């Protein structure tokens, strides 16, 4: 028996062509994965950073949701119970928010009914204040000048009220409450659609009809507010829809640039400027609010 026959040499183990790609991705996005409360948060965060279903295929997953589920499962987590939160319950916060949203309309109507000379400017101030308080999911919109959008909005609303009278300001202020309600319902329904989606395209297909329904419902409410305040519908409704879309986009962390551009277009003294600005911002809202990353928890 030869030496080779007595002691056959075992084949050397093959080296893996590549390391664990998901482990590398987990290391790169560890902060996102550790603070996420469910895989949906990770999926939305990955999408916000440019990772698509095609990118997920390189990590041997069919889509971003599947990749997020593995990242969530592989993220080490402590077993200690979470500390009790001192925040108000969700129902109490919602009730307080809706109560605050009623204030602009009440103040504007009161000033107009009392015949105060500053009724128009007061309506402008409370309307612009309602854009960011109290109805926002709490995500900050990116940008270097956080208050520039509010200043442009104040200029657009003030210019419109100056041209068409204080009743327009009262109508816009009255529309703040239904705008708060429509935005809150849209955010809650979109979040539930996100929970039931299995792909980014699936969620986008579910979110777009919700946005259309929210805009239509608010436009109807704005028309009612305009009729109550005694101002033309063709003037009040497009401007109210523009402000409603501004509120939705800022509240969901959208970039401020397109919002500021639409509000600046509304300053042009032509009848079609405000409808064109609202239409342009609606396109931006469809593109932005149909993304899962726009509905991640802050």
From TrEMBL:
<feature type="transmembrane region" description="Helical">
    <location>
        <begin position="145"/>
        <end position="162"/>
    </location>
</feature>
<feature type="transmembrane region" description="Helical">
    <location>
        <begin position="262"/>
        <end position="287"/>
    </location>
</feature>
<feature type="transmembrane region" description="Helical">
    <location>
        <begin position="209"/>
        <end position="227"/>
    </location>
</feature>
<keyword id="KW-1133">Transmembrane helix</keyword>
<keyword id="KW-0812">Transmembrane</keyword>
<protein>
    <recommendedName>
        <fullName>Integral membrane protein</fullName>
    </recommendedName>
</protein>
<keyword id="KW-0472">Membrane</keyword>
<feature type="transmembrane region" description="Helical">
    <location>
        <begin position="168"/>
        <end position="188"/>
    </location>
</feature>
<feature type="transmembrane region" description="Helical">
    <location>
        <begin position="233"/>
        <end position="250"/>
    </location>
</feature>
<feature type="transmembrane region" description="Helical">
    <location>
        <begin position="106"/>
        <end position="133"/>
    </location>
</feature>
């Amino acid at each position: 028996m030869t030496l080779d026959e007595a002691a056959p040499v075992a084949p050397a183990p093959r080296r893996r062509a590549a390391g664990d790609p998901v482990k590398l991705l987990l290391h790169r996005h560890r902060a996102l994965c550790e603070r996420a409360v469910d895989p949906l948060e990770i999926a939305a965060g990955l999408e916000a950073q440019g990772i698509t279903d095609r990118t997920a295929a390189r990590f041997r997953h069919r889509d971003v949701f599947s990749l997020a589920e593995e990242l969530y499962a592989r993220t080490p987590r402590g077993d200690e119970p979470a500390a009790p939160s001192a925040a108000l319950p969700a129902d109490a916060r919602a009730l307080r928010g809706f109560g605050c949203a009623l204030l602009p309309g009440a103040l504007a109507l009161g000033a107009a009914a009392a015949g105060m000379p500053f009724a128009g400017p007061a309506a402008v101030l409370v309307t612009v204040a309602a854009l960011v308080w109290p109805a926002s999911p709490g995500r900050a919109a990116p940008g270097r000048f956080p208050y520039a959008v509010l200043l442009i909005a104040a200029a657009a609303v003030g210019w419109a009220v100056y041209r068409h009278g204080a009743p327009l300001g009262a109508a816009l202020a009255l529309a703040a409450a239904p705008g708060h309600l429509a935005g809150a319902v849209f955010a809650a329904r979109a979040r539930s659609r996100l929970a039931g989606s299995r792909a980014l395209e699936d969620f986008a297909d579910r979110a777009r009809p919700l946005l259309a329904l929210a805009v239509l419902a608010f436009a109807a409410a704005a028309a009612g507010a305009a009729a109550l305040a005694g101002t033309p519908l063709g003037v009040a409704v497009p401007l109210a829809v523009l402000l409603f879309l501004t509120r939705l986009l800022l509240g969901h962390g959208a970039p401020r640039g397109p919002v500021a551009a639409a509000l600046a277009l509304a300053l042009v003294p032509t009848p079609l400027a405000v409808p064109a600005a609202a239409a342009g911002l609606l396109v931006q809202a469809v593109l932005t609010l149909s993304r899962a990353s726009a509905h991640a928890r802050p």
